[in-house]
Request: fold
Amino acid sequence: MNDEFGSAYANSLARDHVLGALGNRTASQALNDGERPRDVWTALCDDMDVPLSRRLGADDRAAPGAAAGPSASR
Reply:
């Protein structure tokens, strides 16, 4: 969530934004009730119109076999 919304807004969304697809619960409530994180994330993305291309989050890891870049030292 932080990658897409920034940490402050992500925390607010998780705590305050009610999602009809999750039975009118917030993301935090749904997770606490045992919903799968993937299902919660999908419901949140649908509700906030996050494009499919950004639903996997930031990924700066090198692909297998790719030349090592700055993130390779992590």
